[in-house]
Request: fold
Amino acid sequence: MNIKKKVIVVGGGFAGIQLVRKLDDKLFDIILIDKLNHHQFQPLFYQVATSQIEPSSISFPLRHVFRNKKNVMIRLAKVSGINSTENTISTNIGDFKYDYLVLALGCKTNFFGNAELSKNTLTLKTTYEAIRIRNHILQTFENIITAKEEEGKAC
Ligand SMILES: Cc1cc2nc3c(=O)[nH]c(=O)nc-3n(C[C@H](O)[C@H](O)[C@H](O)COP(=O)(O)OP(=O)(O)OC[C@H]3O[C@@H](n4cnc5c(N)ncnc54)[C@H](O)[C@@H]3O)c2cc1C
Reply:
């Protein structure tokens, strides 16, 4: 009797998606967990930030990506802890047990310890942040229209 191993993959970015695609569905049952329910295609964040394309063009629902893989279950959750003795992970929707755990969490913006940078810069690691930059640019153009002449020149 072939009992499938349970794999938990945390992170539906490039790494997590590639792995889940390649794991043999006869050998593994997979739970893909991400704090977002969609994959974000990061190389096109710049185009979203500069209003060239819409966020929906770079957002791919994970359930749609894996709709044909019956051994893959998607869970929208934020992972907060790992208990490697019990083989469980903790999330905001409860604990999950695994045989194998893969962490594919990506990375955070590094401010190299500069608190001023972290306070005063706009980061670009998520679609939400791309939209924030877009709104900031558009708002700045709006401000120019109503600015006094000398302020307008400064912009
Ligand atoms: C603006 C920009 C442009 C880029 N352009 C290029 C390019 O042109 N060419 C290129 O090769 N690379 C490019 N990159 C880099 C490339 O996008 C990354 O190297 C790649 O996305 C990393 O993949 P990943 O799977 O490791 O992480 P990510 O794609 O970041 O995925 C990590 C996933 O983990 C999830 N996650 C994180 N923490 C938790 C948690 N606690 N609980 C649950 N889920 C969690 C996140 O929601 C995310 O979905 C670019 C990156 C950026 C930001």
